[in-house]
């Protein structure tokens, strides 16, 4: 899945995904708005979900990086709204510290605090 920076890029510009281990280009395509004349269908429902991969890929390590990721998701919704979208649903990030990957680990409480700041 995408990180919040990739979600924003997939809406506003060029969506490019590179393998973080090898640097190999996995996929690249024109973003939604450039591909559609910078107009969003005002009758469509847009569903945005993000943040989890920012945590899983180690990009959220502080309150400021959590805020940055949240702002990128908010910017994605704003870009769609400014292009004419009227129905935008943004999914809230769950408490990542309570997920099976982190629950009971030494990182659980810190991750819970960061996800609350998202």
From TrEMBL:
GO terms for molecular function: hydrolase activity, acting on ester bonds. The lineage of its organism: Bacteria, Pseudomonadati, Pseudomonadota, Gammaproteobacteria, Pseudomonadales. It comes from the Bacteria. It comes from Pseudomonas savastanoi pv. glycinea str. race 4. This is Autotransporting lipase.
């Amino acid at each position: 899945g995408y990180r919040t920076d990739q979600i924003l890029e997939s809406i506003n510009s060029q969506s490019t995904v590179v393998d973080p281990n090898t640097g190999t280009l996995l996929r690249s395509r024109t973003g939604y708005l450039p591909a559609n004349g910078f107009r969003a269908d005002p009758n469509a429902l847009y569903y945005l979900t993000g943040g989890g991969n920012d945590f899983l890929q180690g990009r959220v390590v502080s309150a400021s990086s959590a805020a940055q990721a949240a702002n990128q998701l908010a910017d994605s919704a704003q870009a769609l709204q400014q292009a004419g979208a009227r129905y935008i649903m943004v999914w809230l990030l769950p408490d990542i510290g309570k997920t099976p990957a982190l629950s009971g680990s030494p990182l659980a409480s810190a991750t819970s605090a960061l996800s609350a700041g998202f």
